[in-house]
Amino acid sequence: MSAGTDDRASFERNTDLMAKSIDVSDLNIFYGSFLAVEGVNMTIPARSVTALIGPSGCGKSTFLRTLNRMHEVIPGARVEGKVVVDGNSLYDPTIDPVEVRRQVGMVFQRPNPFPTMSIADNVLAGLRLNNKKLKKSEAEDVVERSLKGANLWNEVKDRLGKPGMGLSGGQQQRLCIARAIAVRPQVLLMDEPCSALDPISTSAIEDLIHELRTDYTIVIVTHNMQQAARVSEDTAFFNLAGAGKPGRLIEMSPTKKIFSNPDEEATEAYISGRFG
Ligand SMILES: Nc1ncnc2c1ncn2[C@@H]1O[C@H](COP(=O)(O)OP(=O)(O)OP(=O)(O)O)[C@@H](O)[C@H]1O
Questions:
Q1: Which residue has the higher pLDDT, 56 or 274?
Q2: Which residues are in the ABC transporter domain (predicted)?
Q3: 35, 37, 61, best to mutate for ligand 1 pocket (most atoms within 8 Å of CB)
Q4: What is the ipTM of this complex?
């Protein structure tokens, strides 16, 4: 059991929080003229954890970043095709990418708290970036709710004014998750969130992912197949047809099926460690 399970038990469910499914159709993803990922069609279910697995360079992170329009912050990067969240086509010209990133939060490989900010200010950073003016009591509520949601409250409640950088790596990653959920996103994207963490912190984050899925649609990139098997309901396997060729979605199925009886030979070869 993780240190903060009590936090989650007392975490007041936010009733207007509506996790959404994501429909991806015919998605091609480019860096300049380089087609990195080709022809993805996928439905990511709401209130569930979907793992993205596959060998290095097959485009898992690239695909993940298209789900909140982070891909296009790279000069020359663009997409063709559609990503639809709750009926909203994310790449429609009328859609504001900043609003997309508010609704679709992201947690990165390395914990990245703002180094000069306190624990509390780190949690509030996303809201402040969105220019949201908060009364002191509201800010305190958001900090407590988010840290409880991230199973970190009990460990930090007596030092909220201290720097976020003073926490352990695992605590910093939970602080980043608290910062992501403070803005009440519908979807949480996680790009190898445990790869910089020790086994105990990894286990705490995995417990947290397990608990968060009742409120959020979660998509996680992982190199660790045991982790995919432990935390996800569905798994999508990406692969490259060859060097310099684009990555493709090979198959997506319930995680149990992918790891016991996948449809495709390439999936079987990858999960049994024969390549990748
Ligand atoms: N900023 C970038 N500019 C140009 N090409 C990029 C950029 N980022 C990634 N690529 C290319 O896009 C392809 C997919 O990379 P990506 O990092 O998405 O793969 P990945 O499956 O997440 O790999 P890994 O498991 O090693 O993290 C690779 O060929 C990579 O070299």
A1: 56
A2: 22-265
A3: 61
A4: 0.98
